[in-house]
Design brief:
Elements (H helix, E strand, L loop, with lengths): L1 E7 L4 H12 L4 E7 L4 E6 L5 H11 L2 E5 L1
Antiparallel strand pairs: 1-3, 1-4, 2-3
Helix pairs in contact: 1-2
Length: 69
C-alpha cells in the first residue's frame, strides 16, 4: 500500500532527511522517498495506518502536511 504525503516547508536535503527519519520510526513503513522539489513523500506501508500517524511524524520533523492521498 502506498500513500503520498504532500508536505509544506521543506527546502533542502536536510529537511528531507528529517522527514525520512520520522517516517521510518513508524513500524508499518517499508520504504519512504521524500522529494523536496515536488514537496511530497511517497511512503510504502506493510498495512494501512491512520493518516494521523503519518501527519504526526511529519509534524515532529518540523513540517506541515497539506494532504495525504
Amino acid at each position: 500500500m502506498k500513500k503520498t504525503i504532500h508536505i509544506e516547508g521543506m527546502h533542502c536535503g536536510h529537511c528531507a532527511g528529517m522527514v525520512n527519519i520520522e517516517l521510518y520510526r513508524i513500524k508499518e513503513v517499508v520504504d519512504a522517498k521524500v522529494d523536496i522539489g515536488d514537496k511530497k513523500a511517497i511512503v510504502s506501508l506493510s498495512r494501512d495506518v491512520d493518516p494521523q500517524v503519518l501527519i504526526n511524524a511529519v509534524v515532529k520533523a518540523g513540517y506541515k502536511v497539506t494532504s495525504i492521498e
